[in-house]
Amino acid sequence: MAVTIINGKEVAGLIQDELAVKVTELREKGVKPCLATLLVGEDPASQVYIGQKQKACERLGILPKHQTLSATTTEAELLSIIEGLNNNPKINGILVQLPLPEHINSVKVLDAISPQKDVDGFHPFNVGKFFTEKSFSDMVDKGLFLPCTPYGIMELLKRYDVPVRGADVVVVGRSNIVGKPIALLLLAADATVTVCHSRTKNLKEVCQRADIIIAAIGKPKFVTADMVKEGVVVIDVGVNRLPEGLVGDVDFVNVSQKASAITPVPGGVGPMTITMLMANTIMAARNQAGI
Ligand code: GUN
C-alpha cells in the first residue's frame, strides 16, 4: 500500500486562509490582534523559529511585536518586560521563545505571563484547564489555550482522517512542550496512550505495538523501521540540524516503506505549530475584546 505523506505545509496554508478571514472580521470591528515575542540570546534555531512566527503574523494581518534581548539579560529584567506586556492592552498574546539561557528560570518566566495572553498554553493555569477537561472537542469548543505543537498534531490527524479513538498511540518523549501535553490531548480523544522516554525498557517492542507513533525525543533518526509495524501512522516532531540538512526523529526513508502515513521534516509538524500559535493569538484578541 502506498504511503501517504502528511502535508503539514498544505494543511497549515488552508487553516491560515481561514484564520486570515477571522482577522479581517476582527479588524472590521476595530480589533487589531497583536503578538509579542521575546527572544533572549542568539540561538540560531530560535532565531529561525521567531522569524517564521513573525512572517506568519504578517501574512495573517496580526501585528508582530518582537524584542531580542541580550544573552546577559537577567531574570528580573525579563520578568519586568513581561509585566509591561501583561499590562499593555494593545498586546493580545505573549510568547517567550524557549530554551532560555541557563541563568534564567523558565518555570518562573512562564508563570509570569498573564494566563489570558498565554498563547503558548504553557502557564500552569492553562495546563490545569486542559488537564481537567475530559474531551478533546470540549477543550477546543471551550476555547482553551492548547499548546501549539500538540494542537497542530491533533489537527493533522483530524484532517487526514486518522482514527484516534481506541488507537494504540506511543509517544516517544516526555517534554512539557510536546510529549506530556500530546499524551493528554490524545487521551482526551479516547486513544490508549503510552509515553516512552530514555529510560523505557523494551522501547522497540512498545513501539512495535503502536497504531500511531509520535516521535518527540530530539534525537535524529531515532525511530527506525524495525521499531514500527506495517501500516503505522508516524508523526515526527523532531527538528535536528545535521550536515546533510534538517532531519526529524524518524528514519524517514526506511520507516516510510512500512508506514501508511508519515509526516516529513521539514513540511510536517513545524508549519502546524506556527499556525496554531496564530489561532491562539486570534482567540486571545477576540476574548480580550469581549467578542
Ligand atoms: N521552543 C520550541 N518550541 C517552542 C514553542 O512551542 N514555544 C516556545 N515559546 N518556545 C519553543
UniProtKB/TrEMBL annotation:
One of its GO terms (molecular function) is methenyltetrahydrofolate cyclohydrolase activity. PROSITE patterns: THF_DHG_CYH_1 (PS00766), THF_DHG_CYH_2 (PS00767). Residues 6-120 form the Tetrahydrofolate dehydrogenase/cyclohydrolase catalytic domain. This is Bifunctional protein FolD. Signal peptide: none annotated. InterPro entries: Aminoacid_DH-like_N_sf, NAD(P)-bd_dom_sf, THF_DH/CycHdrlase, THF_DH/CycHdrlase_cat_dom, THF_DH/CycHdrlase_CS, THF_DH/CycHdrlase_NAD-bd_dom. It comes from Candidatus Desantisbacteria bacterium CG2_30_40_21. Its EC number is 1.5.1.5, 3.5.4.9. Pathway: One-carbon metabolism; tetrahydrofolate interconversion. Pfam families: THF_DHG_CYH, THF_DHG_CYH_C. One of its GO terms (biological process) is purine nucleotide biosynthetic process. It catalyses: (6R)-5,10-methylene-5,6,7,8-tetrahydrofolate + NADP(+) = (6R)-5,10-methenyltetrahydrofolate + NADPH; (6R)-5,10-methenyltetrahydrofolate + H2O = (6R)-10-formyltetrahydrofolate + H(+). The lineage of its organism: Bacteria, Candidatus Desantisiibacteriota. Homodimer. One of its GO terms (cellular component) is cytosol. Belongs to the tetrahydrofolate dehydrogenase/cyclohydrolase family. The keyword Oxidoreductase applies. Keywords: Amino-acid biosynthesis, Histidine biosynthesis, Hydrolase, Methionine biosynthesis, Multifunctional enzyme, NADP, One-carbon metabolism, Oxidoreductase, Purine biosynthesis. Residues 147-288 form the Tetrahydrofolate dehydrogenase/cyclohydrolase NAD(P)-binding domain. Catalyzes the oxidation of 5,10-methylenetetrahydrofolate to 5,10-methenyltetrahydrofolate and then the hydrolysis of 5,10-methenyltetrahydrofolate to 10-formyltetrahydrofolate.
